[in-house]
Amino acid sequence: MTDPLIAHNGFALPVQGLGTYGFRGEAGADAVRAGIESGYRLIDTAFNYENEGAVGWGVSGAAVERDELIVTTKLAGRHHERASALVTIEESRLRLGLDVIDLLLIHWPNPSIGKYVEAWGALVEARDRGQVRQIGVSNFLPEHLERIEAETGVRPVVNQIELHPYFPQTDALAYHRKHGIITEAWSPLGRAGELLSEPVVQEVSNAHGLTPAQTVLAWHATRGTVAIPKAADPAHQASNLAAAEIRLDEAEVDAITALGRADGRLFDADPATHEEL
């Protein structure tokens, strides 16, 4: 079993989690349950995904002890004001059907609105109330991370960011390592069709007997990022999880990282300016 990644406070995450964007209704709940029974222990959702109910149903139906799982959700930008944030956190917990949320993130900083510090204070309060076990952020830049810690004295355990070979985020990864913040990668396969056809990905895949998708997920694991691929089919879920056990050599990692592009983002979502309510 691959060693987990450890945050500054000792909180640990497995090197791969199950993304659930688009998993809704009974089919979504079935996909979550299948993922847990395939071996996933980290499940990722968000208030804005509108599927916390399906995720919670899948969690409750899985043949795995609840204390083995880390269920993550995220606070939406329209609820950054403290009072709204606290009620929304309660709403997320109720939708999920959980006594406590294992990991809660602020989904985006929304800097032009400028209430992310207030939202962070609400997460701290929810943690102190015992409604949430661990707190972190998503799509935060170093200046956002530094500000919330300076104003509250609390450092996030996780920053979930866009990260894939076309956008490898080398500087952000180094910053997080220095400060004991676990890096999670959303859309870890990037533009999957194009990326998986890259000659270097194909070459490394052939060398290890992997699929191209497994190769990219192994790249994440080797770099020390938590990838959160989405997969509903149990065979696909098992294939992705198997990649978490593979380690590439330094030259292979560097060759895949070199696919990075100046315009590598999947869409115009620079956290310095992007607003997601």
From TrEMBL:
- SUPFAM superfamilies under this entry? NAD(P)-linked oxidoreductase
Which residue ranges does the record assign to the NADP-dependent oxidoreductase domain? 27-259
> What is an example of a Pfam family matching this protein?
Aldo_ket_red
Can the keyword NADP be found in this entry's annotation?
yes
User: Domain of life of the organism in this record?
Assistant: Bacteria
Q: Which UniProt keywords apply?
A: NADP, Oxidoreductase
Asked whether the keyword Oxidoreductase is assigned, the reply is yes
The family note in this entry says: Belongs to the aldo/keto reductase family.
The entry's protein name is: Diketogulonate reductase-like aldo/keto reductase
Source species taxonomy = Bacteria, Bacillati, Actinomycetota, Actinomycetes, Micrococcales
